[in-house]
Amino acid sequence: MTKLFDVKANGEIIYWTKDYELFTILSGNRIQNVNHVKRLKSLILKNGWRKSSLLIVNKDLKIMDGQHRLWALKDIAKETGNVFEIGYVFDNSMTMKTIQTLNSAVLAWRPMDYIRSHIRLGNKNYQFIQNMIDEFPFTVTAVLSLISKFTGEITKEKFRNGEIIIKDADKPKIWNNAVCIKRLSVYYKSYNTATFITAMAFFLDKPGFDFDKFLNKLETHRDLLYPVTTVSAYKERIQYLYNYHNHNRITFIQA
Predict the structure, then answer these.
(1) Is the CB of residue 151 less than 8 Å from the CB of residue 168?
(2) Cβ atoms of residues 250 and 243 within 8 Å
(3) CA distance 14 to 172
(4) CA 208: distance to chain centroid?
């Protein structure tokens, strides 16, 4: 390892090495995006490695920014034998939120990146979200819509910052709601959209709403449930179907 002072780098000390094994990945940072690594490899092989593209590490040589570049360089070294000298600087002040913001300027973090990041940091609430996604063919947005019925509104910032809190007592209820909604898939192909799930979740815990009765109605009158664009429109469709051919109609929502 050599040391070089570069006034063009805002007075920071830049260290140089060809030993890629010096570095480790920071717990909580996003996992490898294979396609992004491939793009970086292609650019480096075509244009060469820019020495101005530095890694940012903490005092333990864990990468705060630049892990995809390191993965690309490792692959190039393995495949071609060409080892580029890489520069890195120390920054012990960076937080995970700072890292997310910095990374997003190059390749935006996807919802699953945030979920996996918070799981690696030990957040059990996000592990539950992951379990839901693994078990049910719902989008992240749909799962969050279902969970928000029990936690209150989930904003983008709340989700990204790892601030979703799910009570243990609510987890079985959330899971049961998802099981019921999945059962509708046989008769309604748009069952897993966030809009429909939000509307359906509204009814599932309503006194007097019999899910099996609704399922039977859907089976025999599939034409009465069709895609609409809003939650309120879905609620109207669900209530209409539930009460179809009923003498004693139940009003869950006011039309």
Answers:
(1) no
(2) yes
(3) 52
(4) 35
Please tell me the total count of domains within the chain: 2
Per-residue pLDDT for the chain (255 aa), expressed as one digit of tens each?
444 444 344 456 888 889 999 998 776 666 677 888 888 888 888 888 876 677 888 888 888 888 888 889 999 999 999 898 888 888 766 666 666 665 554 556 788 888 888 887 889 999 999 999 999 999 999 999 999 999 999 998 899 889 999 999 999 999 999 999 999 999 999 999 999 999 999 999 898 999 999 999 999 999 999 999 999 999 999 999 999 988 888 888 875
Q: Between the CA atoms of 182, 243, 149 and 178, what dihedral angle is there, to the nearest 10 degrees?
A: -10
Q: Same structural domain for residues 180 and 102?
A: no
Residue whose C-alpha is closest to residue 178's, from 114, 133, 245: 133
Q: Report the alpha-carbon angle 155-160-166, nearest 5.
A: 70
Residue 65: CATH number of its domain: 3.90.1530
Give CA–CA dist 173/76, Å, rounded.
49
Which one-letter amino acid corresponds to residue 44? Answer: I
- For residue 17, the 8-state DSSP code is E
Determine contact, residues 167/206, Cβ cutoff 8 Å.
no
